[in-house]
Amino acid sequence: MSVPQLLLCLSLSMLCISSKPTEKKDRVHHDPQLSDKVHDDAQNFDYDHDAFLGADEAKTFDQLTPEESKERLGVIVGKIDTDKDGFVTEGELKAWIKKAQKKYVYDSVERQWQEFDMNQDGFISWDEYRNVTYGTYLDDPDPDDGFNYKQMMVRDERRFKMADKDGDLTATKEEFTAFLHPEEYEYMKDIVVQVRPQKSAVWGIFNTQTSRDMYSHDGDADEPEWVKTEREQFVEFRDKNRDGKMDKEETKDWILPSDYDHAEAEARHLVYESDQDKDGKLTREEIVEKYDLFVGSQATDFGEALVRHDEF
Questions:
Q1: Cut 0.70: pTM above it
Q2: Residue 104, C-beta contacts closer than 8 angstroms, at least 6 positions apart
Q3: Coil, strand, or helix at residue 282?
Q4: Which GO terms of the cellular component aspect does the record hold (predicted)?
Q5: Long-range contacts for 154-162 (Cβ within 8 Å, ≥24 apart)?
Q6: Residue 81 and residue 293 in contact, taking contact as beta carbons nearer than 8 Å
Q7: In terms of DSSP H, where are the helices of the chain?
Q8: pLDDT of 13-58, one tens digit each?
Q9: Cα–Cα distance between 213 and 190 in angstroms, integer?
Q10: What are the average pLDDT values for consecutive 10-residue runs of the chain, which has 312 residues?
Q11: Could you give the angle at the alpha carbon of 192 between the alpha carbons of 95 and 122, nearest 5°?
C-alpha cells in the first residue's frame, strides 16, 4: 500500500467516529482490529459479525435465512450466558468475542500447518517454511512482479526466530501461531513495529509537512478536514515527546496500545445497541431481536441454507 493510500485509509477510519460507546473518544487507535471491515453501522454490520462470530463463521451465517439465523443465534446465546442466569452481560460478551477471535487464529494456523510441516514430524523448521514460501522465487534473481523476496525472507526469518522461544529454529504449533499472528502474543509485539524510523512511511506520516504533501493545493483552497484532523491527532496524542516525529515506542503505542481493548469496546457497543430496557444486560429476546447486528443473514437464490452444527 502506498503512502497516500495508507493515509487515506486512516483518515476514512476516523470519519466513522460517533458518540456510541464502541469508540474511544480521546484517541484514534489503529492496532489489530476484530475484523478488517470498516466499523460503520450506517453502512452495514459486517465488522460486528466478524467480531461476534469470527470471520469464517460469519461467512456461514451469510448463507442463512433470517429464521435460521435467529434460531442458531438463540443457541449461541445459551453458550454466552455462562452463569445461566438468563442474561448476557458485557463481561460475558467480551469473553465470547475473545473466544471467537482465538478460534479464528487457531483455525488459520491449522489450515497452514500441514502445508509447511513437510516431513510430518509435528514441528515446522525455518528451512521448511522458507522452502515452501520462497523456494521458487529465490531461484529467480529478477522476478517479473518486482518484489524483493530476499528482503521479505529476511523479515520473516527475524520474526520466526523471535517466535522460536527455545532458539532451535523449529517451531511448535504455539510458536508457529506466534509467528503468524504476532499481535496475539505479548513477547512478539516489538516485531510488529520493528522498522527503521528513517525509512518507514508510517513513522513520519503524520508530521505537518507530510500531511501537506498528501493533498493538492488548488489556488487558495483550504486544506481538507482530514488533514487538519490528522495533524491534531499527531500533535496531541501520537508525538508524545514533541520532537515532530514518531519514534519506536510512540509507534508501538499507536499500533498496539495497552490501554484499549477492542473486545471490550465491541461488547459495550453490542449491549448499547440491543439493550431495549436499558438495564445494562441482554435477554435472549433482545439479542435475537437484533440478529442482523449480531450475525446477519441473507436468503440464498433458492431459499436454501448451509447447515452446520458445530458453533464453537
A1: no
A2: 54, 55, 56
A3: strand
A4: endoplasmic reticulum lumen
A5: 156/129, 156/130, 157/126, 157/130, 158/191, 158/194, 159/188, 159/191, 160/126, 160/129, 161/126, 162/187, 162/188, 162/190, 162/191
A6: no
A7: 3-15, 46-53, 55-61, 66-80, 90-116, 126-138, 149-163, 173-180, 189-192, 201-204, 208-213, 225-233, 248-255, 262-274, 284-289, 291-294
A8: 433 333 344 443 333 333 356 877 878 888 889 989 988 988 888 8
A9: 30
A10: 40 39 36 71 87 87 91 95 96 93 86 93 96 81 67 91 95 95 82 50 45 51 69 72 73 63 90 96 97 76 36 48
A11: 70
Q: CB under 8 Å, gap of 24 or more: what pairs does 290-295 form?
A: 291/66, 291/69, 291/70, 291/73, 292/45, 292/66, 293/41, 293/45, 293/48, 294/48, 294/49, 294/52, 294/73, 294/270, 295/49, 295/52, 295/53, 295/58, 295/61, 295/69, 295/72, 295/73, 295/76
**What is the tens place of the pLDDT at every residue in 194-221?**
544 433 334 444 444 444 454 555 555 6
Q: Determine the pLDDT at residue 89.
A: 97
Q: Which amino acid is at 260?
A: Y
Strand partners, 282: 88
For the packed helices 262-274 and 46-53, what is the interaxial angle rounded to 10 degrees? 120
Q: How far apart are CA 223 and CA 215, in angstroms?
A: 8
Q: Say which amino acid occupies 75.
A: V
92's grid cell:
460475558
CA angle at 195 for the pair 139 and 178, rounded to the nearest 5°: 75
